[in-house]
Design goal:
The complex is a heterodimer of chains A (about 140) and B (about 475). By secondary structure, chain A is an all-alpha fold. Chain A is about 50% helix and about 5% strand. In chain A, a hairpin with a 2-residue loop joins β1 and β2. The mean pLDDT of chain A is about 95. The chains are: A mainly alpha (about 140), B mainly alpha (about 475).
Amino acid sequence: MKDIFTKSVARNIYYGGSAFFIFLFLVLTFDTHQRLPQRDNREAITELSAHGKRLWEENNCVGCHTLLGEGAYFAPELGNVYLRYGKSTEAIKAFIKSRPANGIPGRRSMPQFNFTEEELDAIAEFLKYASGINTENWPPNIQG
Amino acid sequence: MKYQSQSVAKLYFIAAIGLFVGQILFGVILGLQYVIGDFLFPYIPFNIARMVHTNLLIVWLLFGFMGAAYYLVPEESQRELHSVKLAKLLFWVFLGAGVMIILSYLLIPYARLAELTGNSMLPTMGREFLEQPTIGKIGIALVCVGFVYNIMITVLSGRKTVINMVLLTGLVGLVVLWLFSFVNPENLVLDKYYWWWVVHLWVEGVWELILGSLLAFVLIKTTGVDREVIEKWLYVIVAMALITGILGTGHHYFFIGAPSYWLWVGSVFGALEPIPFFLMTLFAFNMVNKRRRKHANKAAVLWALGTGVMAFLGAGVWGFLHTLAPVNYFTHGTQITAAHGHMAFYGAYVMVVLCIISYAMPKLRGRVANSNKAQVVEMWSFWLMTVSMVFITLFLTAAGVVQVFLQRMGDTPLPFMVVQDKLEIFYWMREVSGLVFLIGLLVYISSFFIKGDAADETLLVEATSENE
């Protein structure tokens, strides 16, 4: 065994195996790109939702919330918040607006971001778009 | 220490440990915010503290990797480092940039920081772990390119050992994959798809090459086992890391909008991902069992064995627990993920950096090993940090299981915040464990200041000329 499985065999597995799986990964990535239009709700991407995504990023929302299960685990999942709030962008906006500036004594609270009406629309639109992505029925229920 | 230029590593190691302390302090703040929700609110909200915690981790591990490379590459290449000046310059640039990024998180509202740094020109901010302002990301890229250039010239013009070549491929991969941190399309699915090319392919890809080569180096030096044997092990480990890890990226593509076949690809290759970590455990123990000498630095050997075990537990076992799609469907984005993240990062990357520091630092300070007294204190810190991390992981896992049960299963699932209240007891116990970890870290630092005569080594068999 020791004679057959030499260091150079191990080296060839390392370089050959890696190259093969990088290639396979790239092929699957190409195929994923072909299939995404049917799944990623791209028709809902508008100037408004793109602005919403930027606001999502520039206020570091992912530092507390998850979005499609990714982010921090300190605050609720927001990939399906549009559905949880009865498909109401107004309800989303109202929640964001209602956060007290100095928090809630002893409890977790979302900061008050003082968004304009237009910014609130954009964020809500972004979350609405996210809720339309085909996530293989994740999360298991409306609570996220 | 054989080559004068190796001494540049000392700067990097000191900075790494300093930033590590900052990371843990913010970890303790975060743990407290989990139970006292308004702690430091609105001055340091959770998201800011978390960003500081995770970014400090990334930056100090990079400092650790860089220091490790500057220490071991000259010795492996049997020549001085290409440019000590460049290494020193990049150190101050990186430290300055790192400290500025962290301070800007704390002193400037994040949205204002985005505005000040012109995020709208090339928006890259506000994605988990990649929160740095775009200019900061460019700075990190430049520092890493300069660093890899310095290492590459040294490696290619010197003795090309397997450790050097594996380390070099790992470092080149680190730089190339970092470029995907600049990819941020408006399409959320594509954003997430390529975000993982940095995050997963670093942590479960190229960083494992760095981990493997650092571990192999310390094992060659401390056990006196034949280089041929160690190098073959290293090849097998890193081969398995990439063979399983590249397609293992698929375990992050289950529920973010990617095609259904990723459920299978991610589950199968995700389930194989523990293999390289298991091999690392076997590797570390086998080499220590076969050792030809008892190195005077017992603490370094302990860290090497520790990283073998804890990387397997944290990355391997805790990763496997939720890597299968039908399980991940329920656990995705819960405290289970947090549990896995903590032990995996500690076991694999924190411990291997502390291992190389443990081996190299005494040499950089002019002795083979620290005094027995200092080593005993260091080993105490090993156990304090490691055991408390095991408890952090166990408490978070318990919290995660209850969370999944209450929030994701059953006929009347409860809302997220209601469930969080019910998890309070686990979060308190996690916080206590976190404080013990902090104590362990302070004990670790104190071990550097304990004097006494250097410990002796015992030769079991006549050591070869290379090992010392």
